[in-house]
Amino acid sequence: MAAASGLLLAASWPANGFPFLIFVAFLPLFFIEEEYTRQKQSDNKIHILGYAFITFFIWNALTTYWILNSTIFGGVMAVVLNSLFMAIVFYVYHLSHRITKNPNGLFILIFYWLAWEYFHLDWDLSWPWLNLGNVFASFPKWVQWYEFTGTFGGSAWVLIINILIFKFLYSFIKKDTFLRPAIANGVVALLLIIIPLITSYSIYKNYSTKKDPVEITVVQPNLDPYSEQYDKSPQEILNHIFTLAEQKSDSTTQYIVCPESAIQERPLYENYINRGKSIQLLKDYMSKKQNKAIIIGASTYYIFDEDEEIPLSARQFNDSQNYYNAYNTAIYLDTEMNMQLYHKSKLTPGVERMPFKSVFKHIENFAIDLGGTVGTLGTDSVRKPFRTFTGDKTGPAICYESIYGDFFAGFVRNGADFMLIITNDGWWGDTPGYKQHMAYASLRAIETRRSIARSANTGISGFINQRGDILKATPYWEEAVISKSINKNDEITFYVRYGDYIGRVGVFGTVMLLLITIAAAITSRNRKIVG
Questions:
Q1: What is the pLDDT of residues 444-455, one digit of tens each?
Q2: For the chain, which terminal residue's Cβ has fewer other Cβ atoms within 10 angstroms, N or C?
Q3: Domains, in order of start, for the chain
Q4: Antiparallel, parallel or unpaired: β 393-398 and 452-456
Q5: How far apart, in whole angstroms, are the C-alpha atoms of residue 316 and residue 325?
Q6: pTM, whole model, 2 decimals?
Q7: Helix or strand or coil: residue 27?
């Protein structure tokens, strides 16, 4: 039964899963938990941790096995640790259910799970790829109401429906005398599936996009990240990108968007950035254009002055006392030679961010080398949209940053009219990984109601409208360049304004429920002592 839950969770997941299965995926695990809760033996409660681990290991392994293509050690650790964390959350819920003896104890899980997903967004081992609300990424018409709730609304939806269906079925299986509550649970579950779907389709149908177009060309150079991207000279790669861009960009094109880490000149110091050969080549290319801007990824470095505060991410030169930061950077350059930089700030654990570096001083030695700068990178403290030559603002999310709803919305809160995603999804091979990553961008479009242009080195490049529809996309592992007009928007959604408020409610509820559980445990223990 534990394996059945894991298989149902995996079968519901993007890119090829059917999300309706998610509404019953937890049922087998719930049946196990309910039986163990009703048993009186105190030594069997730990078994739930094992069963839950089986469920979540199968789910994680079948949906994120593709991480192994880039790093075997990192892939194993991601699957095992994420499965363990989920199992622990479920086990803590089981203890609360058992101690409080609440007949509606399953609803405790909603708060614990939402709190876990919220916590998982912002710590050194952050990996929210399997947050439950992401399950509908390939079906954006189902969740247009994410503009109000974000993916946390989807997570709560999934858990509530599973709980109600379980309570409905369990009453019939146990042949309860009073079936009216069971029937009520079934009816409510059905309504809570139908009403949000109808609401979403209505929002989708009636959503009106204001016509305020920008013309964008997206380049997919299709360089093998394990060889070509780092074996070829930075000048060769740039010339290749320029050649591709010329195939589709014309006098109407305003923005040319190129992928993450396209510029690999080493070292490219921001202190003297105009001296870089790649930057000179970029400026030479743009000087021949009119009314255009290029956005392109690069690996850059910054040398700290002696009087500057040295961050934890800084590294010391081998031959001097000076420190520097390494960055995964998005560069904006327009035909007026205005240049702006944004540094990736949601870093990939184990590759760009070594966990618990403040505690484990030598953990940098275990960083996973994927060809770029290895070890903990520097970050920006705010989401800085690029102010363009037209007066517009665009947010340049880099790769992993597009998984984080509230983080992504930060660009919009700071004025972004449309969004860009630059990424390199070639590390994972032809697996669900790059498809899931592309699908998740549709959720960001719905949450923020911002059109998105996405440039991948390889993977899927394309355009997404404000309703989350993928308007145009490139094939996988093919050199490509595409152009399209997308619309700007300056309206702020409820979700952008308030962020992951449902996650914060989950944290508050979890604290209250844990206190209640502790109080109940103390009371129960005192009664046993008195007795």
A1: 999 999 999 999
A2: C
A3: 2-206+501-530 (no CATH), 213-298+330-498 (3.60.110.10)
A4: unpaired
A5: 9
A6: 0.93
A7: helix
